[in-house]
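Changelog entry: the Glycosyl group 1 family protein record was regenerated in this release. Current contents:
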Amino acid sequence: MKILIVNTSDIQGGAARAAYRLHKALLAEGVDSQMLVQSKSSDDFTVHRPETKFQKAMGKIRPTLDSLPVLRYKDRTKTLFSPSWVPFSGLVEKINALNPDVVHLHWIAGGMVRTEDLAKINAPIVWSLHDNWAFTGGCHIMWDCTRYIQSCGECPRLASKQEQDLSRKVWQRKNKTFRKIPSLKIIGLSSWLTDCARKSSLFKDTEVICLPNPINTKSYSPFEQSYARTLLNLPLGKKIIAFGAMSATSDINKGFQYLSNALELLSTDYELVVFGSSEPKKSQGFKQKAHYLGHLHDDISLRVLYSAADVMVVPSLQENLSNAIMESLACGTPVVGFAIGGNEDLIEHQKTGYLAKPFDIEDLAHGINWILNHDNPSVLAIAAREKVIVEFDSKVVAMKYIELYQTM
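Regenerated structure tokens:
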């Protein structure tokens, strides 16, 4: 069986890392898996990318070109909106030339492919949804908007008051295209996103399955905390709170402001570690001492970071199936997050972490305190890791995907 995994990039970004992990897990099970990307950062020979200098150059500017129709909405939010209109990517031609038995799409925005071209793929398609984009009129993070259940329009992300706005036009293009795809199965990576996809007007008549991302629980496993802190130059005798993500402090969806406010309610004896962001020029005014580790790109560094912390905080406004939560739990570090999105698939309240009431700063602070002052932290650590081993380990999840591919 020949599987082709398609994602905008191979290892840069959460969706990329999740897709690449699945790719490696399939290879480990003897599956002929390859990956096709617009932007390649690894040196993995099983990952294909544009070949010519022109194609590589176009790959870099396609995200900018794709965003042009959005610019006329001056009051739009800063969250990503993808029309996916830019033609001539050559993606479908490359896919069909590789001639896979199944094409497994992941995050394909950023100008990687024009929506209409998906109907030209010859092989059956499996599509893992890493955010809301596939079933909306262009937004990736819908927050509390439910217009995707009808046909979008009057898009709050665009600050639009028009029914026939860009979101409605993108929805119409998707609706027309998806109906032409003869064999399509949708994967919601979390229970929450699976439910959203099933409710959506675009996928209500399409089979939607809930299957998670995998994680290598050998690469992500507990590391002696004192050694981890020594490696990262962190204090040995302090309770440490970790927070991190791509653009950790600047992405509004990551909820950094909620953490900042919660820290005001916590002891100055705690210390904060931020990764995914460098120290800002202007102090952010925390009561607690803060350590900024910048961007950590490899599994070894992340494993050490999670193991150095006593608690990981993920205060996102919307999450699907968070890599950060899964990674932290696999390393035996409990997690505090809001009870939103896919967080409940990972965090078992007061067992593997703490689910705070959505956007309640006091409860977020209470959850952090609850973990940091737990009578028996090893109980939380063991439960956290066991949760990931049983439900999300690479081998366990890979076998479920293989079974799915065999039905296509």
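The mean pLDDT is 94.
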